[in-house]
Structure formats: C-alpha cells, structure tokens
Amino acid sequence: QLTGRWFLVGMASRCTYLAEHSHQLEATAVVVTIPDGQSLAISTFRKLDGICWEIRQHYLPAQVHGRFLLNGRGYGSKVDVVVGETDHSSYAILYYQKGQSVSVKLYGRTRQVSDAITDKFEKHVRAVGLSEDVTYYFPTYG
C-alpha cells in the first residue's frame, strides 16, 4: 500500500549537514515500488545544483511487519527503517535509525498535507527527543 508517488514534506534530524544547508532544501519526490512482493525499491528525485538527480535505494524487509533494513556503503552504515504511522492514501511517517541517531520523515501523496497531519508528525518528532529547531519543511515548488 506504500507504492506510488510521494513527496517529502518534512524531516526532523540532528544531521549537521542538513542544519548547515537547510536554506537550500529543494522539493523532493519519491516513487515506491515493490519489485519482489516484499522489499521496497525507492527512487528519490531531487534537484541539486540545478540538476535533477535520481537516488535509488532498496529497503529489505525485516522480521516485523512495517520494518525494513537499508544497507549503506561501508562498515556500520545499516539503517533501520520503520513505518511509524500511515493511512496509505495521504501521508506516511517513517523513522530512520542508524546507530543511536534517529531521523523522522513525513511523506505526503501531495506536496502539502493538512495541519492535522503536520501535528501528528510533530508529535512523532517530539516522541524521539527531537525538537522544532531540527525540524525542516521542504518547499512545495520545483
């Protein structure tokens, strides 16, 4: 039910790169497919330095429903991905954990979501100990 097109609406993270470059955030679209009936193939489309880029990732299913594993490059680059909350038709809130670091992302089927969904996202952000000063919203244009 997560398949299809999504837009990255918001993100909460203590990532220093994100904090330093938050003024350069670009509209970001994601297409989710399920190539083998279990894992998620994620194609992220975003603009960087005036050029559109596609980033492809493969989320492997974990033992628990709604949990996935993203293997990165190098030692210790495993990322646990958890679907925190979704209605499949308008929004999805996902947790990304690498070691002790946790990020929360809000995806919408449209470029903007309702205030009620934004409130849900912010509750999830606070629940993992993040705050509004490390919460970023992506532009709806581009």
UniProtKB/TrEMBL annotation:
<dbReference type="GO" id="GO:0070062">
    <property type="term" value="C:extracellular exosome"/>
</dbReference>
<dbReference type="InterPro" id="IPR043245">
    <property type="entry name" value="C8G"/>
</dbReference>
<dbReference type="GO" id="GO:0072562">
    <property type="term" value="C:blood microparticle"/>
</dbReference>
<dbReference type="GO" id="GO:0006956">
    <property type="term" value="P:complement activation"/>
</dbReference>
<feature type="domain" description="Lipocalin/cytosolic fatty-acid binding">
    <location>
        <begin position="3"/>
        <end position="138"/>
    </location>
</feature>
<dbReference type="InterPro" id="IPR012674">
    <property type="entry name" value="Calycin"/>
</dbReference>
<protein>
    <submittedName>
        <fullName>CO8G protein</fullName>
    </submittedName>
</protein>
<dbReference type="InterPro" id="IPR000566">
    <property type="entry name" value="Lipocln_cytosolic_FA-bd_dom"/>
</dbReference>
<dbReference type="GO" id="GO:0001848">
    <property type="term" value="F:complement binding"/>
</dbReference>
<dbReference type="GO" id="GO:0005579">
    <property type="term" value="C:membrane attack complex"/>
</dbReference>
<dbReference type="Pfam" id="PF00061">
    <property type="entry name" value="Lipocalin"/>
</dbReference>
